[in-house]
């Protein structure tokens, strides 16, 4: 999509430079100062190392996209439901429905901070480096039988096919979903918590009904189980740091559409002297 840069407060159009003005967001190879890497930045590394490097080390800014406001609202409303259960130390209806009434929302003084990906999130220094890993999750549940924490993530979507445990992880983007929960579980473990290998996606799937819209949307709610894996993450993170500490720009992923567009455009502009 074509995006025009606007002032975040006034909405007025401003010059798009393509480079961040916040120099603290740009990493210098082997810098000593602490540098925060978010879960989404790690996911960018796994998607295309060239795009990751240009953003992290050179400050490139990709075109902005509109926010997922309906998804955000669903998350907000679910968090309100779970916070009511949290205050009463009782299980939530989706858990009870799935025979998991021994699982309740986890009560912790920093839960709101952990769920704020912008100004808070889970945070952990990677080994003895200057890299601070950070990620804001949707929720943390507590298994009262094993006394382990459970990572939970809310997903809103619309698919005509029925959401099932057997088919949910088929298709695009699902590897990224799995990495997301793996990353959060790794952070919680690194922060000293006892973390379950069980994790859950709370899926809200909008239904297409024959009767029409009539001012409301209906959702099927499905709980999908996922077995977290964290053993691969430290090797991945170290590789990511190695890329950051290099002065060489990595190769792009062959399927990266951002890189393909950049190559095509630069080729035309060079050929035509633009």
The beta-strand count equals 8
User: What is the string of SSEs from the N terminus onward?
Assistant: EHHHHEHEEEEHEEHH
Low-confidence regions: none
Q: What is the first-to-last residue Cα distance?
A: 22 Å
Overall helicity: 25-40%
Task: Provide mean pLDDT, rounded.
Answer: 93
The count of domains is: 2
Can you tell me the overall shape? Answer: globular
What's the short version?
The chain contains eight helices and eight strands. It has helices at residues 39-47, 49-58, 69-88, 93-97, 111-114, 174-190, 233-244, 257-271; strands at residues 35-38, 103-105, 122-125, 131-135, 139-143, 148-157, 198-206, 219-227.
Care to describe what's here?
It is a single chain. This protein has helices spanning 39-47, 49-58, 69-88, 93-97, 111-114, 174-190, 233-244, 257-271; strands at 35-38, 103-105, 122-125, 131-135, 139-143, 148-157, 198-206, 219-227. It is α/β, with parallel strands linked by helices and 274 residues long. A hairpin with a 5-residue loop joins β3 and β4 (131-135). It is globular, with a radius of gyration of 21 Å.
